[in-house]
UniProtKB/TrEMBL annotation:
Lineage start: Eukaryota, Metazoa, Chordata, Craniata, Vertebrata
Gene: Agpat1
Transmembrane segments annotated in the record for this chain: 6-25, 37-57
GO terms under cellular component: endoplasmic reticulum; membrane
Name recorded for this polypeptide: 1-acyl-sn-glycerol-3-phosphate acyltransferase
Organism: Cricetulus griseus (Chinese hamster)
PANTHER family in alphabetical order: 1-ACYL-SN-GLYCEROL-3-PHOSPHATE ACYLTRANSFERASE, 1-ACYL-SN-GLYCEROL-3-PHOSPHATE ACYLTRANSFERASE ALPHA
């Protein structure tokens, strides 16, 4: 079917009008647009990053390129990221960073403080996230198969060696999955075993609750502020595998205390916690 040339313009204008009406009238539609753009923009940036990173091959130094490309996203979304405690990063030695994991938006806070030669540990599925997966692989992200505990543990043990021999730092989300419920899940112990095996310090990092600007359940995503707090390193020298459970509990407790302190409502309560009868209400 042939369309009158002006019809294309009219159609385009109609679509734009529809999209802008949705944007201004429906917070839910706005949420979906913003999330779609977030993922789409990262996939696009990854396409730009791949050829630049490929020159060096798989190399932790490529993480600097990803970081540089990702740092502006907070401005696009009107999110102010305020960092405190960056002086706590040990200047030279290897260490294990542990941080809370609320959403893929953690990338914004993470890029703000990511130390040099620091690689995140990620679920294997991310490797298949198109251009983003390839960019992560080129930047040395360590992938683990969460369905195979034995394999994941042996990857972590290899990482313990790499930390020391190649002078790298590792970033682990010890909750092991995203958690939107305004608290922290029990910590898995892989990061702590890793630090004890390598006898390197643990640097806890806490990102405040996103509840004032983001809620997946309510489909709400506005501008806002996120506090990122780097806590003093926790030494592991002299600790043995038997000490890992107590170490993990101690670190989680200190992180949860800070999370509640820096989150807007003073409790670190997630969006659903603010509503009577909300899904996470019983957790506090
Ligand atoms: C410019 C464009 C850019 C485009 C790119 C976009 C992004 C940019 C770049 C970078 C960002 C990438 C960031 C990606 C982040 C993705 C985040 C995630 O994927 S989080 C999910 C994956 N991570 C984790 O799961 C880490 C935490 N998990 C653990 O530590 C786990 O313990 C585990 C090692 C994975 C194993 O888990 P599993 O559930 O299978 O078992 P358990 O935890 O129950 O452990 C069983 C048992 O084993 C003990 N254990 C654990 N580890 C060890 C070890 N290393 N040595 C010895 N023993 C170990 C554990 O303690 C349990 O025993 P027990 O119960 O007795 O304590
Ligand atoms: C710190 C977050 C890193 C985010 C990287 C964003 C990449 C966005 C680009 C393409 C979008 C497709 C892939 C989406 C992957 C989202 C990454 C993420 O946040 O992983 C979650 C993982 O941890 C835990 O997984 P589950 O919560 O158990 O399911």
């Amino acid at each position: 079917m042939e369309l009158w040339p002006g019809a294309w313009t009219a159609l385009l204008l109609l679509v734009l009008l529809l999209l802008s009406t949705l944007w201004f009238c429906s917070p839910c539609a706005k949420y979906f647009f913003k999330m779609a753009f977030y993922n789409g923009w990262i996939l696009f940036l990854a396409i730009l990053a791949i050829p630049v990173c490929a020159v060096r091959g798989r190399n932790v130094e490529n993480m600097k390129i990803l970081r540089l490309l990702l740092l502006h996203i907070k401005y696009l979304y009107g999110i102010r990221v305020e960092v405190r405690g960056a002086q706590h990063f040990p200047p030279t030695q290897p260490y294990v960073v542990v941080s809370n994991h609320q959403s893929s938006l953690d990338l914004l806070g993470m890029m703000e403080v990511l130390p040099d030669r620091c690689v995140p540990i990620a679920k294997r599925e991310l490797l298949w996230a198109g251009s983003a997966g390839l960019a992560c692989w080129l930047a040395g992200v360590i992938f683990i198969d969460r369905k195979r505990t034995g394999d994941a543990i042996s990857v972590m043990s290899e990482v313990a060696q790499t930390l020391l021999t190649q002078d790298v730092r590792v970033w682990v989300f010890p909750e092991g999955t995203r958690n939107h419920n305004g608290s922290m899940l029990p910590f898995k112990r892989g990061a702590f075993h890793l630090a004890v095996q390598a006898q390197v310090p643990i640097v806890p990092i806490v990102m405040s609750s996103y509840q004032d600007f983001y809620c997946k359940k309510e489909r709400r995503f506005t501008s806002g502020r996120c506090h990122v707090r780097v806590l003093p390193p926790v030494p592991t020298e002299g600790l043995r595998p038997d000490d890992v459970p107590a170490l993990a509990d101690r670190v989680r407790h200190s992180m949860l205390t800070i999370f509640r302190e820096i989150s807007t409502d003073g409790l670190g309560g997630g969006d659903c916690l603010k509503r009577p009868g909300g899904a996470g209400e019983a957790r506090l």
